[in-house]
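Researcher: We're teaching a course module on how sequence relates to structure. For the next exercise, students receive a sequence and then see the predicted structure as tokens, so they can try to spot secondary structure elements on their own. Here is the exercise chain.
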Amino acid sequence: MADGGVVMADGAEVMADGAEVMADSVRVMARARRPGVRGRTSAARPSGYWRTGTGLPKFGYFNLNERLSMKLTKMFPALAAAALTAAASGPMQAQEERGPFPEGWQVRFDREGSSMEDLSFEVMPPGMHVTTGPAMIAYHPDSVATGDFRIESETFLFDPGRRREAFGFFIGGSDLQGPNQRYTYFLVREGGEFLVKTRSGSETGLVQDWTAHPAIVAYATKPADASTAKNVLVLEARGDRLSFSINGEEVWSGSRQGLETEGIFGLRVNHGLNIHVTTIMRSPAG
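Model: And here is the predicted structure for the students to work with:
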């Protein structure tokens, strides 16, 4: 009975938090509908935020505000899972029903001649929803990481079917819309494997070939009560060393010598994937 009382108390607290989150959401959306309300930037916020220009929250912590973010994190298993399940219908929506394209972000497809009509990339709090046709990178040109830094991305993979296409992020981006694009990228794929590669122009170089690791959550092995496979990818650059971690476990480390590490960071998503990204942010190295 004592344990039952604790569970009931915790449930009551979560329900109370839920009511507060809903109230905060209504207030934010009401503010967003007011004419003339614009998003604001803050020097205190880490690079990786974008401004929608509609009063909606900046992307980086997937938050409406930091207090709401903590409550959403606490309630995520119960509430956000439902939102993510609903998001699965996103690829079938008509263009006019989609959310806004993230303001200021840019896209480059791997395959020349690919069309933006083949991509669904939209604001969908908490975060952004991406459904690819061709493989691509997406980034905000103001999202730059240099020196010692930490890049973190939280991503939810929807049912990939039999496809084992990869997704993750890149660092050290330069000339991303030109012929000499360069970056280093860190990916995971269905089956529980990760990869580290570089790109220079049209050529790619292998740093770490596809390697299985038990820290990676595959869609096929996700928890029974989950509708998506959640993975948190982190890259830390400190001095000469790089460390790539997935869900809190280091899976690769190496020297940054010879790799592109200074420059723009952003998302990389291969073809035919349906994912939700709640976080892509830079912070100081721990």
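Model: If you want an answer key for the exercise: The longest strand covers residues 136-145. The chain has two domains: 2-82, 89-283.
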